[in-house]
Amino acid sequence: MELVCPAGNYQSLKKAVDNGADAVYIGFNDETNARSFAGLNFNTNKIVKAINYAHQHDVKLFLAVNTYPQPQRWHQWRYAIDRAADIGIDTVIAADISILEYASNKYPELRLHLSVQGSATNSESLQFYLHNFGIQRAVLPRVLSLAQVKNLAEHSPVELEVFGFGSLCIMAEGRCHLSSYVTGESPNMCGVCSPAKAVVWKNEGDILESRLNNILIDRFEKDENAGYPTLCKGRFEVNNDIKHVLESPTSLNTLNILPELAAAGIKAIKIEGRQRSPAYVEQVTRVWREALDYFLTSDEEFTARSSWQNVLAKLSEGSQTTLGAYSRPWQ
Amino acid sequence: MKLSIGPIEYFWPRQQVFDFYDLVADTAVDIVYLGEVVCAKRRHLKLADWLTLAKQLTDKGKQVVLSTLTLIEAQSELKMMRKICQQQDFMVEANDMAAVQMLTEQQHQFVTGAFINIYNHKSLAFLARQGLVRWVMPVELSGDTLSCILKELAAMPEKNNIETEVFAYGNLPLAYSARCFTARSHELVKDNCQFICAEYPDGLNVKTQEQQQLFNINGIQTQSGEKYNLLSAIPEMQVMGVDVLRLAPQLKGMADVIEAFSQARLGQKYTDIDGDGCNGYWYKQAGLTKVAG
Questions:
Q1: What is the tens place of the pLDDT at every residue in A74-123?
Q2: Å from B100 to nearest chain A CA?
Q3: ipTM of the complex
Q4: Above 80 in pLDDT, residue B276?
Q5: Is A193 on the interface with B (CB under 8 A)?
Q6: Taking CA atoms, what residue in B is nearest to A123?
Q7: Are B176 and B71 in contact (CB under 8 A)?
Q8: Strand, helix or coil at B177?
Q9: Which domains does chain A possess?
């Protein structure tokens, strides 16, 4: 099983490589990728440096070009693919049909993975992307139960990569417009969800309010942990009751089901968090490397060590973790 | 410019569904999309029932398209979709690439729904070569972007075969999840949902703590709290070359909605539909914004 770790800058990339990632995924510093945040990501020079460092350590470098270009700026996405091929990126992670078409026609040797933003959750959909663009792997949206993942792995015509840890998207990725509904910017169009520039924090007496484009997302009492105002994790009113209607602040953690994922034939575990710090990347990579090595080499039955879980819990939203959709009761 | 009725997104009683299409049959609507697109557990109507409805509506002069499920997670769902894709009598709307794949294999022409991510002319042209004959623009795209797509397309050989449809009225489908939010709001899990969504035939309203309309929950689907309304953008869409306007089914007031759009597309004076509504997406703003037309 391959461990695929995030890097939003060169420091994080080094941490991922040094702590045992098999592959690191990054993006250009523009809207061609789904973590298009100010001050984050790589220009061409930095990518060359990154690829040198990764390859010196026998680690692969993946590039996410996984947003959906609109016609006005389509050439910018094409340019991202051209640069990726030119630099010698190992794999491009893409979602848009026209970008997959361009990459597979122009650079038949370039390895393609279907991004989670491509929203493929079943064997027929994967077949479409394999048949038309020769994708070799797909990253699964966080909507399938463990049983469904197992079943899909049996029928899938391509390798599968699943999310192992990080912020939890609760909607089918690539099929969520909540962010653009409230702010005008979305993952598909702009590579952002609930963008930081739309966030306002305000104290009203003892209450701390979080707003997104002036829409009230949550109110926190003094002793409450105030989470980032991601739309799906806000507290709203439904049937006269104020609660986390969609989801509470929590992160995904699949360490406990690692043996089942491996037995199903899942090829890679993806760690979310290109927007997080080098320290986050270092700690999460180290824990997952240890866990994978232990699982692959030990004769004992695998149980996730509490020391690993403690590290991961501290790095989680609201210090809570969940199995998300892998667990039927969550659904 | 044609008018279409999108698939019923909510879980209505069987008779309600038949009554609704009785009403639609005698309106100015040109195209009707039939079928369950949100939740595979909703089975008040079997495929045979939908096909019966389809024949009745065809007899009344409507073009019928069979819509398919949006989020496909299980083999049983693929199986049902294959049945729909294999029938020859009616065109199919794909809401997942799985349906596109099946329809392409069958060499059937197809429509793509708003959750097939077509954000540019090249993706549109690619799918047209696979058999796409109509597409529903993703709801978050603006009129400006659509105009660019159609201009670019005009220079491409695929242009002649493609009709463009725009979601023009109703609660916008915004997101799909594995989780059933209607069940969650009643502290039920999806596997034991007790079909609680049937209690909310127009969805379950979600407001901010300041009582602002935000979302409308419909099982695993999250919709906009406000109704999208592009009545005032019709002249602009006609110039641009939009072929079809989609109206989303709602329990009450559907005849008035159809009437207003029917008049507006002919350039006649129309009675605007009650309620605040929103149209921000069309004008390149946050979707919930209302821009004065």
A1: 999 999 999 999 999 999 999 999 999 999 999 999 999 999 999 999 99
A2: 8
A3: 0.97
A4: no
A5: no
A6: B98
A7: yes
A8: strand
A9: 2-168+250-330 (3.20.20.70), 178-243 (no CATH)
Q: Per-residue pLDDT averaged across A195-220, rounded? A: 96
Cβ–Cβ contact A61 with B under 8 A: no
B122 touching chain A per CB within 8 A: yes
Nearest CB among A71, A132, A237 relative to B207 is that of: A237
Mean pLDDT computed over B167-192 = 97
Parse chain B into domains and list their residue ranges: 2-171+228-272
Closest by CA position to B190, among listed B221, B225, B224: B221
pLDDT-derived band at A31 (thresholds 50, 70, 90) equals very high
Question: Which of A70, A142, A176 has its CB closest to that of B175?
Answer: A176
pLDDT at A302 over 70: yes
Predicted confidence band at B159 (pLDDT cuts at 50, 70, 90)? confident
Percent of chain B with pLDDT over 90: 96
The answer to whether the CB atoms of B208 and A216 lie below 8 A apart is yes
B293 has a pLDDT exceeding 70: no
User: Residue B90 corresponds to which amino acid?
Assistant: F
Contacts of A184 in chain B (CB under 8 A): 280, 284-287
Nearest-CB residue to A128 (from B100, B119, B287):
B100
Asked: is B2-171+228-272 a CATH 3.20.20.70 domain? The reply is yes
**Helix, strand, coil percent values for chain B (each to nearest 5):** 40, 20, 40
Chain B residues 167-186 within an 8 A CB cutoff of chain A: 172, 174-181, 184-185
Instruction: Give the separation between CA A269 and CA A107, rounded to whole angstroms.
Output: 26
Contact B178 A215 (CB under 8 A): no
What is the mean predicted confidence (pLDDT) over A291-320? Answer: 93
Instruction: Please list every residue in chain B whose beta carbon sits closer than 8 Å to the beta carbon of residue A250.
Output: none
Give the pLDDT score at B275. Answer: 73
What's the confidence (pLDDT) of residue A40? Answer: 92
Task: Judge: A71–B121 Cβ closer than 8 Å, yes or no.
Answer: yes
Reported as a pLDDT band with limits 50, 70 and 90, residue B237 is very high
d(CA B178, CA B40) in angstroms, rounded, equals: 12
What whole-number distance in Å separates Cα of residue B167 and Cα of residue B162? 16
